[in-house]
Design brief:
The N terminus is likely disordered. The strands form seven sheets. The protein has a six-stranded mixed β-sheet. Strands 3-28-27-26 form a four-stranded antiparallel β-sheet, with no helix packed on it. It is built from four helices and 28 strands. By secondary structure, the chain is mainly beta. Strand 19 and strand 20 form a beta hairpin.
Length: 371
Amino acid sequence: MKKRAGFFAAFLLLLFPFFLQAQKVKTVDGVKIISYSKKPKPAKGIPGRLILTEELRFGESENLDKSFAEVTAFAVDADGNVYAVDMKDSKVKVFDKEGGYLRSIGKKGQGPGELEMPSGIQIIPGPKLVVEDALARRLAYFQLDGTFIKNVSFADRLAMVNIIFDKAGNVLAREMGIEGNELFFGINKYDPDLKSLFTLDKIKFAIPTGGNKMNIMDLMAIYQMDMEGNIYYTRNLDYEIKIYSPSGKHTESLTKDYDPEKVTEEDIQEMLARIPQTSSINYEEILEFPKEFPPIQYFFLDDLEHLFVKTWERAGEKDRFYVDVFDVEGRFLTRFATKADLRLVRGKKLYSIEENEDGFKVIVRYGMAWK
């Protein structure tokens, strides 16, 4: 979606009716806005179908060391090795590209190289592993072979979660704070030493006391960074993904019409069940839910900077949802339906977290082909 020399010239050459129906582009206050209807079609000459073929499952074993108690996140290196965070087992479990178990990194504890409640993982240039340890409020750095490097603490902050890096080592994260009688999440960018650079957005909500409740959907702002450090962000009130430069300037927006999905009581109970139980808090007493889902569950960028947007729009079954796919220029490519929890694409392989027939979560790799 970044600006490309000659894009507008190419755009003018493609002003056919089918294209106008698919995409509308305008500029408002210097921001390019790309808009789509509810069911867009790809422009002529753009592959409009993505074929996924299951290739392999990781962590499908009766051996507890080689399977997952609760897989929450994973990363894939250049060789196709998978580094999976097992939150309940407080380890990172490593598998080769053929699905064979290699080793575990870390163990339960608070010491160097130990993890309390790992929740996220990334591979950064070096290459190195960075594990987000939410309960210990720190980042743990490892070599890919599991050698511990260092911890970087953020214990001086109330809370910081959903931490991601760009290739320069800068960080984008959600930091919690308190102002008067309100809590807030600041979507902040930091330098590699976690010194704040700027705040992208600030989301306020009442402290859940005296009968006040938090709307759980208010906590679900979504963000990613591309290889150049551009930030993709949605407050998720509408189907609008805003793109910011590395310095925080709003340059583009991608918008799409949608029909909202109703939130059922079954949906509420399923969402409550997915919240990690780390204390005796009764979340039903402090959380409230809207009548309708927001438009987007999450999105991610692949290594070619295609944008995969998983929506809340159901495709016939309650747990089968549509995914919209756009290219780097914001052009619509395709939409498909899936039950999978899609996470990332590496080397033309798509990876997801899914439940197997026995109800255990595993990582699934798919081959990808555009038609």
